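Design review, sub-item: ligand-bound model
Attendees: FS, YL, KQ
YL presented the inputs for the phosphoenolpyruvate complex:
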Amino acid sequence: MMKFCGKSVYKGIAIGPAVVVKDKERRITYRETEDSEEEIQKVKGGVESAKKELRILYEKALAEMGESSAAIFEVQQMILEDEDYLDAIFSLIRTEKVNAEHAVYAAGDSFSKMFAGMDDSYIKARAADVMDISYRLAQNILGGDTMDFDLKEPSVIVADDLSPGEVVRLEREKVLAIVTVHGSLNSHTAILARMMGAPTLVGVPLDLDKIHTGMKVIADGIQGEAIFEPDEAVCEELKCRIQKEQENKRLLREMKGKENITLGGKKIHVYANIGSVGDVGDALENDAGGIGLFRSECLYLGRKDFPTENEQFHAYREILRLMGEKKVVVRTFDIGSDKGAEYFHFKKEMNPALGYRGIRVCLKQPDIFKTQLRALLRAAAYGNLSILYPMITSMEEIEKISEIIDEVKKELHEKQTVFKVPEQGIMIETPAAVMISDQLARKAEFFSIGTNDLTQYTLAVDRLNEDLDDFYNPHHEAVLRMIQMVIDNAHRCGKWVGICGELGADLKLTERFVKMGIDGLSVPPSTILPLRKQIRELS
Ligand code: PEP
Ligand code: MG
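KQ shared the predicted structure:
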């Protein structure tokens, strides 16, 4: 039995077989394919982009470490141009009908083994280079930051780390739990895992070489422990705890159908945060009063190209249909920082959280923004939709957004498309937005406070830095005073204000938020009923 402590993202317990995903190999899966030519073109494209990367690495190594260190990248470039190597890949694709990245991996593996078996020490040493360049080529073919897990049965995913795009693409019915070596509690990866309701532990100090796929593992998000190959006694104790958990859940279900109202008669709207159309089921199952935050960037993650206007329109309309008359707040895509998508071609940034993200991308690349807005305005004709804009810092941004909305209206009008301009609100998640919330409240129709980023920017703590989790304190008086200021400014203008950051689900603060005058809280679906219970017990 091996026991490791970690940081708990979602407090649930699960037991099942591990699927271990090692960093380099993890994205290379096997597929049969009929279209060999398409796969060969993918390899050729991958070779070109891998060569570009190697040239950059060569220049960097040359400048920083000199010719002999840089030479390794020259050798790798030569391998990429080697006809035998490329022919081996192409022939695997043609004869075995396999996908490009698998063929690259398989060819690299056999060349590497052949080199390793040679007597010549120079050639022997090239074995690692062939493997290294094959991984690079495969990653370039795959693009993006995403891999597909091939889960045959419900499993516990054990990985070094996962990107938000990877979490978005998980088949949720097959994910019992997630255990990662790295990762912070406040990253989007953690937030998406929490929304899925999968017991998740991050920062678990595992040696992935000692953990194997198929090992039995307990992911205990309540105690913050991952236990591999647990002994009988531990499994028995766990069964009792799981039973208790289920009993607690049953008791909570009694909250369904009840109002979110304090003993003193104050009603609070409790909505769900979702990341996909698939999450709506969970929201309804947990009796959400509406969707308070649909992180629409999830539609953009884990794919190779932009979602089209129609694709988005169908997704928004489907959510509206499922939610009936209930409110659905769609946040326009907040891409950037940890939520990257290769096809946006973002430049590398020194401080991505302070960089090109959210509304800044929308205003700098209005065509992409307009595609989403057209889809949203069209969908708005089918239900109770609100649009929410992320990362606002100034009145000028609001003015620019309204100009773009006018253009979109005109375009839709000209095409005689059915549309409606829905309610539009802004996220208050930067200290700048807090400080001018009196002005913003005159323009916006509602506010939604994003405490995740507000904490990051107020305390100057990078929410993605796992070593700073202890400093990331959303209970900091500075954050709480800002929330009060925003509520007061919104109410002075008669506007509605809610919290959609993770803090909204923090039951230790529910009473304080109610006293502050908050109108609504939007939280992960699994936390709706505990929150309702808490509200109903407040005097
Ligand atoms: C927030 O910042 O609180 C928020 C809800 O947005 P996200 O976590 O997606 O950045
Ligand atoms: Mg945010």
